[in-house]
Design brief:
Length: 280
């Protein structure tokens, strides 16, 4: 979609943009049926667009002094160990959402943020797979500052960034207490740069919205069906021409599918079942 056609301050709504094959601008979702028949929303959604600046945010600015994340590369692997609490200066809202919070009328998220035990062992030199893999629900990547990245869908199969009520860092917890982002966050490292934001579970890097060579903000039309491209980026301290994912302001925001093979050991049993049953 031509960005020049978007209304001022608006982003196109991603509802319905799910596919069972890799499709530019859509999300190749392992799940094709969803539990909920309705979804959250608010006056910031108008027709086929939504207005991020008008969206209500969960109140609070909680700093997590116990946050701990380490990332190390040795030999053929990169290891991430984290308790999934965002490293300062990033903060979170107050969860569960309080009844006195204006956000409560749109989303009653009852979940608390709970420290997790994250240990990911990713390939340090990831390779493109013979065929893309669908994206399961749950964690599909991880930021360098300790926060899980989920795909762009909410439990109803709609555009989570638009529908779900999140905090001022565009994050929130799910039922197990895992705090996560569904798209770009103002509290992500390097979100508005061409530098590394985090890692997908196939080992490929997830980079900020800018192109390193041109400095321009990239959009779906600049990327392939998995929401990535091959171009020069900084990787492990060197300038390398390699495949990588790119954040975009618009849906699907982070990944459209896995370009490489996600590391099975880093997936939950439920995610493995989702991938195996695709397109069930």
């Amino acid at each position: 979609m031509d960005q020049a056609a978007w209304p001022a301050g608006a982003l196109p709504l991603g509802d319905g943009l799910r596919s069972t094959t890799p499709t530019q601008g859509e999300l190749m979702s392992c799940s094709t049926t969803f539990a909920k028949s309705t979804s959250h929303g608010g006056p910031w959604i108008v027709g086929t667009y939504w207005y991020p600046a008008q969206k209500v945010a969960v109140q609070g600015a909680v700093s997590w002094s116990a946050a701990a994340t380490s990332i190390s590369t040795a030999g053929s692997t990169t290891t991430i160990v984290s308790n999934n609490l965002p490293l300062p200066p990033a903060t979170t809202g107050v969860f569960p959402i309080q009844r006195t919070d204006p956000a409560y009328q749109y989303d009653t998220n009852p979940n608390s943020i709970v420290a997790q035990s994250i240990q990911l062992t990713l390939p340090a030199s990831p390779t493109v797979a013979a065929a893309p893999t669908c994206l399961p629900m749950g964690m599909i990547g991880f930021t360098t500052t300790g926060v899980a990245i989920y795909n762009a869908l909410d439990d109803a199969g709609n555009d989570a960034a638009a529908h779900e009520t999140q905090d001022s860092c565009q994050g929130h917890p799910q039922s197990g207490g895992q705090y996560h982002y569904h798209g770009p966050s103002s509290c992500m490292p390097n979100v508005d740069t061409p530098n590394l934001v985090g890692y997908a579970l196939d080992g490929f890097g997830i980079y900020g919205e800018k192109d390193l060579s041109t400095g321009k903000t990239l959009h779906d039309s600049d990327l392939d069906a998995c929401h990535g491209t091959t171009s020069p980026v900084m990787w492990q301290g060197k300038l390398v021409d390699m495949y990588h994912y790119v954040l975009t302001p618009e849906y699907p925001y982070t990944l459209g599918c896995f370009k490489g093979s996600p590391v099975t050991a880093d997936l939950s049993s439920g995610q493995i079942a989702q991938i195996r049953n695709f397109p069930g």
